[in-house]
Write a structure and sequence with these properties.
The protein is of the alpha/beta class. 29% of the residues lie in helices and 12% in strands. It has helices spanning 2-18, 47-51, 98-105, 113-119, 148-156, 171-180, 203-207, 217-223, 267-271, 281-289, 313-328, 388-398, 492-538; strands at residues 36-42, 72-74, 79-81, 84-85, 140-141, 158-160, 163-164, 184-186, 195-197, 228-232, 235-236, 251-252, 278-280, 296-300, 336-342, 368-371, 379-381, 385-386, 447-449, 469-471. The strands form 7 sheets. It has an 8-stranded mixed beta sheet with strand order 13-10-14-1-15-16-6-17, sandwiched between helices. A two-stranded antiparallel ribbon has the order 2-3. Strands 4-5 form a two-stranded parallel sheet. Helix 1 crosses helix 13 and helix 10 (281-289) runs parallel beside helix 11. The longest helix has 47 residues, at 492-538.
Length: 544
């Protein structure tokens, strides 16, 4: 109990220190208590496929007994399919081009998901972009049993249930919107006025063109001397170049532009000589742990960690857990806002028709979580949001509210609208309570996967304070790109060993928290003293 009290006191002291401007000594107010924004982008999940049964969220429509009231047409089998629980760790999803998004929405009826998935056909191989490697599973949803980490974040922090992909379609346009508020094709890579909206982007890989001439957010950050970095996990690319469900794998790295890493192909990034700000994800973990995060971080996965079909959901959770834990265990936690989302719906069912704000979108709904010491606790945000809200928040925190507005930023382009200024777009500041006592860091352990039926009610709560997060997903089905039957289910002896080690780990975490927070507080005190000494050293001598 004493260690927890000490840890809490140090956390409050550290948060106060971190929200004091080191130059003026003035206490920072409101959103300016946030000094670091981290956007973690995963792959290809609709809101209903992950949080459709989360209590209080705008999820799958159900009757009083809990049965789904929707049934999506299945033309191939002349029937319909209701949303159903899917405990598999590997999914197949469906096609997700802009045309597929329009077909899935079907004029607001939200009934095209099975039809589009079946239209791609089945095949035995994994390299044919016209087919899938497993039966359609777009109507399946997961719950706390399969994604305990994400539900535990929703329990403690903020869940956004009206977050829409900014565009109709797949990964590349979504990532372009994330960093620039637009997806376009440009006739002249040095002239932004030659750009026009493009939700396909297939030419980019067919020709190898480097033609993103319009203005991106890093241009505004660079002009204000605001630090940023785009962190990429090395490995296989998380999506297909032509947006098929499956495709041949291609290697990726921080130095390789791709559908998930478009910044090196922006004219502004190269003219500003900031291509080196695209880094390996290992640099993010190191920076987070040592209090060296840039002001703005975008973090994207490799295929194996992405949750993109056919990657394992459990692998994605462990990857995200590592990223969030690194921030929570480092000195910057007290001034950081983490936004976790998924880039597109991946062909999976969602019941809510997206609003239309311009010719490009919005696209379908995706999950969104906010993790921060200032995040409102166990709060569901019902505002209409898109990735444009991340840019708006970054602009409000670091740029004095300046927008990606071609009329004002000195680089005119013909984007249809200034996305951050769209009237229906909500304000992410509503997800924070800057007057609350900052939430203590609570790093989460690795996920213990159990066979179906062995999940106890207590373990199923998925609390980040428990010894392990429990995943009851069945060993993943065969037929994925790697073959085999996936992770081996835990044996009874594993549970005994986990329980025996629980007390030791809890004590170790308590001591670690005290050490981390004490180190943070001392480092901040030392930094403040250094600033004071430097200010005195530079003060002009008094004239007598």
């Amino acid at each position: 109990m004493r260690s927890r009290a000490v840890a809490a006191a140090l956390a409050v002291a550290a948060a106060v220190a971190l929200t004091t401007d080191r130059g003026s000594g003035q206490t920072l107010q409101g959103i300016h208590k946030i000094r670091h924004v981290v956007v973690i982008m995963q792959e290809n999940r609709s809101f209903d496929s992950y949080f459709g049964t989360y209590p209080g969220a705008d999820g799958i429509p159900r009757d009083a007994s809990g049965r789904p009231t929707v049934c999506v047409p299945d033309p191939k089998n002349r029937t319909c399919v209701t949303p159903h629980h899917d405990d598999h760790d590997r999914n197949f999803g469906g096609p997700h081009t802009a045309a597929d998004a329009v077909a899935d929405v079907d004029g607001g009826r939200m009934d095209g998901f099975v039809r589009q998935a079946e239209a791609t056909g089945l095949c035995a191989g994994t390299t044919d972009p016209r087919c899938v490697v497993g039966p359609p599973d777009v109507m399946g949803y997961h719950d706390r049993g399969e994604i305990p980490l994400y539900w535990s974040y929703a329990d403690r922090f903020v869940l956004q249930d009206h977050l829409f992909e900014p565009n109709l379609g797949w990964s590349l346009p979504a990532h372009l919107f994330l960093v620039s508020g637009w997806s376009a094709t440009c006739a002249d890579p040095l002239n932004a006025t030659t750009c026009e909206s493009d939700l396909d982007q297939f030419h980019h890989y067919e020709t190898g063109a480097h033609d993103y001439a319009w203005t991106d957010l890093t241009y505004l950050l660079h002009r204000r001397h605001i630090s940023w970095a785009y962190f990429v996990a090395a490995g296989n690319a998380p999506d297909c170049d032509d947006d098929a469900t499956t495709c041949p794998r291609r290697l990726q790295s921080a130095s390789t532009p791709s559908i998930w890493n478009p910044l090196p192909d922006f004219t502004t990034v190269n003219q500003d000589r900031e291509a080196g700000q695209v880094k390996d994800v290992g640099a993010f973990i190191g920076a987070a742990r040592h209090g060296q995060l840039p002001a703005v971080s975008w973090v994207v996965p490799g295929f194996d960690q992405s949750e993109h079909p056919n990657a394992l959901i459990s692998a994605g959770q462990d990857y995200v857990r590592t990223l969030v834990n690194a921030v929570m265990s480092g000195p910057d936690w007290g001034s950081t806002a983490i936004f976790l989302t998924w880039d597109d719906w991946g062909g999976f069912y969602d019941h809510l028709a997206p609003p239309r704000v311009d010719v490009n979108g919005y696209g379908l709904r995706v999950p969104g979580l906010v993790i921060s010491p200032f995040a409102r606790q166990h709060f569901i945000d019902h505002q209409v949001l898109s990735f444009d809200a991340y840019a708006k928040f970054i602009e409000d925190v670091f740029l004095g509210g300046q927008r990606l507005d071609p009329r004002l930023d000195g680089r005119p382009d013909p984007r249809p609208v200034v996305r951050e200024a769209v009237g229906i777009l909500g304000d992410l500041s509503a997800d924070f309570d800057f007057g609350q006592t900052p939430l203590l860091p609570a790093t989460t352990p690795r996920i213990l996967r159990l066979p179906p039926g062995s999940l106890s009610p207590a373990a199923g709560k998925g609390s980040s304070a428990s010894n392990v997060l429990v995943d009851r997903a069945v060993a993943d089905r065969p037929g994925g790109p790697e073959g085999g039957n996936g992770p081996t289910a835990a044996k009874p002896a594993d549970h005994a060993r986990a329980r025996a080690a629980a007390a030791r780990r809890r004590r170790a975490r308590a001591h670690e928290a005290v050490a981390i927070l004490a180190g943070t507080a001392l480092a901040l005190v030392a930094a403040g003293a250094a600033v004071t000494v430097e200010r005195r050293r530079r003060r002009p001598a008094m004239l007598l």
